Amino acid sequence: MQAKETLFADLVQGRAQQFQVPLYQRTYSWSERQLAQLWCDILEQAELLESGAPASTHFLGSVVLAPSPQNEATFPRWLVVDGQQRLTTLALALAALRDHLAEEQPDEAERIDEEYLINKRRKGDDHLRLLPTQADRPQFAAHIRSVQEVQSTGDRVAAAYRFFRRKLVAADDPASPQDVLRIEQAITSRLTLVAVTAERGDNVHRIFESLNNTGLKLSQADLLRNYLFMRLPHRGEHIYETHWLPLQASLSNDELEQLMWLQLVLDGDDRVRRQDLYAAQQQRFERGETSPARTEEDIEAYIKELHRRSVHFRKVIHPEEESDLLVRRYLTRLHDWQAVVTYPALMLLLDKRARGALDQQETARALSYIESYLVRRMICRVPMNNLNRIFQSVPAQLPQGLPVADGLRQLLSADNRFWPDDEELREKIRSAPFYQYGRPNQRRLVLQRLEESYEHPEPVDFASAQLTIEHVLPQSPGGEWMRMLREEVAEGESPEDLHARLKHTLGNLTLTGVNSELSNHPFERKQGLLNGSHLEMNRHIAATERWGAREILARADDLAERAVQLWPAPLSGVGRAERSRDWHLAHQVLAALPHGTWTSYGDLAAFIGSGAQAVGTHLAKTEGVVNAYRVLNADGRIADGFRWAGQDGGDVRARLAADGIHFTATGAADPAQRLVSDDLTQLLAGAEDAEDEQLGVAKTVGGGAGQRGEETRAARFFRQLAADDSDETVAAVRELLTEWEKYGGWVGHGAGEVATSAFLMLGKAGGPGSGIWPLTLYPGSGRGGVAEVVFQHLANREPFVDRALRAELLERMNQLEGVAIPEGKLELRPSFRLSLLEDERNRELLCEALAWFRERWEGREAG
């Protein structure tokens, strides 16, 4: 193998030759961002040429070449193992330049054509000096041959050609003309490449495979595609055209990789990880390898099966393509649930339907079990961390000798699968804080299905309706609400405890499009708005005379009966998950209490969906519960009947003081250090919630241009903010975001269609782990917008893994008038009202804190 530095002109000029992009290479994929960067580099080199100043050339990257199997002594052909994106782009730039010159300088246009783009005396595909993959070939050839070709939407080849035509017109502006031939010179003789040339005996596949370790980030699908077509020397072209091209056209590269992984799972490999796809499939082929001809047959059969199953996979990711109405509805709900973990089971069902093993009705019944399994576990707060393993094992473990739907139900009903039965479902709908578990889209889907169960003659179009979840009993109730709750408290319970226990339960929640109008108003005001709603569940709420504990629990019981009918139960005899799971959740959150914090019996009860008395009894009788003594009465006092469970722990107050808890002059624990039920939920959820939301963040500098006049995420954010915050607050937030961008940050907006958010980001876009943000801003939905300080997220990001830096950020935030975040919340995501930013001094202090944050982040490596 030889490597040498070269120029584009030296690489492609000279005798007739051809550079062939192999079938296994991905299609042309450069976007305008990459094209714009290259164009800037070209113009810079052109200006240097024009000035005559000595300067180095621009290094463009490497090109790896290997002799083609179709090589001829008089016509060398090279496989482009790596570098096809660069070569294709430069060829398109020169084609655009040739066409730009064609009318006024036809001789120069012809010279460019013959020197760089074509083999003048060759016909057919050999006429092209660069031969792209088959998928790109028609468009590329049309531009090289100057033949008008119909362009499909999203065609990257045509888009690149148009980009360079547009830029050349701009560069030829009479007011400030650029020498177009100087641009040609910059492309051909100022962009350097390192050409790595393999010898005939070198293993080209190994070269391609090794590129995965060079930072080029070849995907598992790229590697596997290369492996397959390198082993199809005789039938590769035919298989590529008849099966691979349609497959590649119907799925993105990521979706194709997912399908390849699913094919392994469907074939019985229930342990393979997606990141091990390439190695696992390679081993399968080589394990049964006999002869080259047989290997080609096996690979052809594999690609044909992949193509066949791609039809099923598209229905999973695009449910609208499913023809049967009932099956389509289930697939749509699972898609909206974002139930990616269920794909192995969904693919199995659609595959068996295609093979005649079950009909449409049985397919829908099987899908109903999958939906029920997810929904019941979410409502009953069964941890989701084993769902991948459960559904990946379905194809290999589906019971034989039973109808498919029955077998799936039996498999999911096993004791260790934790599919809640009717009794547990009823109990959790009545008592569990539904609003604090699962994702927002999942909570909305549960309420949507419950609304549909009323079978309104003119049902709501949920796809277009802008509905959010409303707490009928408000999250921040006024005096009238609290007076009503005081009439219904249980023994040993305060109105605040009762409110905390009921506010997030399913019985108190509904869907509405007028959340900001409902806000914290008394029930009489809400009644009028709910009565005018098109949703049946809201009319039922409006028909009651009051809205207290009795009404909330009665509605919960009604919804529970509907849920039992909507979502089938597991088979009888299943070992039911006992209350011990809830107590384990309580033990977990107590063990996670940060230094300097305490909680109350009512807060802990609301967190697990129990009663304050039951919590007190459990803690008094259960030995070994970490931090049990840090559970106090709501007023911050040690319970009169407190006793240590097991070994005597000494003076409780002394232990609390040692844990950083301060006491007021009246002897009560500092209320600022109390963690309420919402804090406990956040504490145990960890930073994953923020990471999940940031997955959908889009970079929207300048508002983020929408498509076809649609509302942008930024516009949606400000519309929602303005719905219940003053004009002064909205203006203050705009000023804050503008200042943040001046500091070199960017503003990303959450992907939610109904409720959105604004992230103050540093670093690059691209999902969790790729950037850092100190604040997330949320519209208030009737309660006023808030700024969330994401200490919990920062604890996993350099340099703020250092607790002292997070403590300094907290101190800077607390300098704002009206902000008083206790040190105990350094492990959480505390918030303050955006209305505080109306004060000019507060805005200045916050901007100073953000500037300090950026400086610490930028200096992380130096530190």
Describe this structure as you would to a colleague.
With 863 residues, the chain is an alpha+beta fold. It contains 38 helices and 17 strands. The strands form four sheets. Strands 11, 12, 13, 14, 15, 16 and 17 form a seven-stranded antiparallel sheet that branches. Strands 1-6-3-4-2-5 form a six-stranded mixed sheet, sandwiched between helices. Helix 15 runs antiparallel to helix 16 (360-379). The longest helix is centred in the middle third of the chain and has 26 residues, at 292-317. The protein is globular and about 100 Å long. 40% of the residues are buried.
**Structural category:** alpha+beta
Helix content: 40-55%
Task: Quote the average pLDDT.
Answer: 85
Give Rg in angstroms.
Answer: 32 Å
> Spans of 5+ residues with little confidence (pLDDT < 50)?
212-216, 574-578, 690-696, 700-709
Main sheet properties? 7 strands, antiparallel
Q: Could you tell me how far the N terminus lies from the C terminus, measured between alpha carbons in angstroms?
A: 43 Å
Oligomeric form of this entry?
Answer: single chain
Approximate shape: globular
Helical stretch tally: 38
- Report the sheet-strand fraction: 5-15%
